[in-house]
């Protein structure tokens, strides 16, 4: 929500025109976090008249110019420029009507137009120019000088429909409606408490200004806290909201000054965050215990009371801790992921290896085997190939759902990789042992550098036709992973492991327990009542490498080491799940839903991550250049585990 904010430029009589123009470019926007309230527009006249309380008289001399940021405020309280004679007003039609995107207006008082003197020009803004000498004559009117290139005339033509809606509803009714909704939601948020009576919602801007006579804005900017006082990151909030069909704006809202002020980030904090890798639009939402941004909700004329209630229910169910009653009526305090009781830990179940699945090409279909050899990078040939887009990006199912229809199979005896696609009649055959003589290069896959080898154009053309876009097929020849020198929580090795990685995101192998999947399905069944579509998943939805059976639900969370046959593995902790597990195929079509991620988020969330399954690294026992005997995994082998 953009509010009606007077922002001032003071021009002393002694300043030159150039100094005034330089000063004009230093105008700053009103801070986004302060949009809980709107300033009274009487400030415009006070500023224009130089009657500013608290400023020394020498600072009130000269001419003040006022810019009103009414980007969103025009929808509820458009400024009357006869009463409030501002020099500049900005508004956003997208924020007023919800359409079209990226179209706004700058309203300029004729007397102030001369200040807007651009140092550059482009198409449509000049009357004449000569290319090889410094000669240019600008057009006369201010709108002709400022409108570069072809204006968005189709979008402009649609504005009449938006104005009709505003005229029909009236701005006074919209203002009352949106302010009522925001006030209701704000009060409900402030009343939200964890089971230890600590506040859940921290709302910014409530006491941000000392200016009197402020009006309530239909916008709420906030962050959320856990019961232990730590912060929920804004990306976590945004991710969970999307699963509930709620779209939020998060981050710093293109206003780093306000972001730093209200979040308590010093200059050194901001520099340190950047050096740690934090940039705009990334997922680093909490660094060193401090949030790097916030969450913002806005109400418009189309918002309803039901929308407000749905949002409040989302906050209550996703972020407010509640006491858990035991069967004897006493209140228990349980951690979200502590799902294995002490009695079950005393029982040693007969855990067996149920399935082995290999995924030769990243994000394509895998294939099941009865037995398979291990290599330094985990299962041999697992995710050893990938597809790279024309822009250098790594192609995955999240970006290219067509990858889910590509089938793969490796025949070890023939030494070949077979690839099939419903869009290609011919089956692609690729030798596993062939020494590629094509271009060798380095690629970056999620921050990890790899040396890769590429294939000829025939192979690239096959995959390009299979997925409907140009791509390059690549094979991993080596990875340049740095060594791990620290241990993580619970004594586990950090994710930056010594082990060689192929094109996997984190650990070499993903383990899924059939019992954990069964528990998830029971929760899906209970939540799919009330006429909702019945959703059940199998272990393959999570793209595991090994599936085990005979355990208890989520017992794998506590394992630190595994022993299968004569192979040993180290647990790297839980696997953070994303929207990819919501994709599934039905009659050749890739279908996207909210499940099972939405249900997992309700009980498998820890510190911003939704965990299901565990990541493993293979301990090949090698050191230096010595050769280690090849080990195999076999379906039916017993799985020995250790929590030490």
From TrEMBL:
<dbReference type="InterPro" id="IPR015422">
    <property type="entry name" value="PyrdxlP-dep_Trfase_small"/>
</dbReference>
<dbReference type="GO" id="GO:0030151">
    <property type="term" value="F:molybdenum ion binding"/>
</dbReference>
<dbReference type="InterPro" id="IPR005303">
    <property type="entry name" value="MOCOS_middle"/>
</dbReference>
<keyword id="KW-0501">Molybdenum cofactor biosynthesis</keyword>
<dbReference type="InterPro" id="IPR015421">
    <property type="entry name" value="PyrdxlP-dep_Trfase_major"/>
</dbReference>
<protein>
    <recommendedName>
        <fullName>MOSC domain-containing protein</fullName>
    </recommendedName>
</protein>
<dbReference type="InterPro" id="IPR000192">
    <property type="entry name" value="Aminotrans_V_dom"/>
</dbReference>
<feature type="domain" description="MOSC">
    <location>
        <begin position="476"/>
        <end position="642"/>
    </location>
</feature>
<dbReference type="Pfam" id="PF00266">
    <property type="entry name" value="Aminotran_5"/>
</dbReference>
<dbReference type="Pfam" id="PF03473">
    <property type="entry name" value="MOSC"/>
</dbReference>
<dbReference type="InterPro" id="IPR005302">
    <property type="entry name" value="MoCF_Sase_C"/>
</dbReference>
<dbReference type="GO" id="GO:0006777">
    <property type="term" value="P:Mo-molybdopterin cofactor biosynthetic process"/>
</dbReference>
<dbReference type="InterPro" id="IPR015424">
    <property type="entry name" value="PyrdxlP-dep_Trfase"/>
</dbReference>
<dbReference type="GO" id="GO:0003824">
    <property type="term" value="F:catalytic activity"/>
</dbReference>
<dbReference type="GO" id="GO:0030170">
    <property type="term" value="F:pyridoxal phosphate binding"/>
</dbReference>
<dbReference type="Pfam" id="PF03476">
    <property type="entry name" value="MOSC_N"/>
</dbReference>
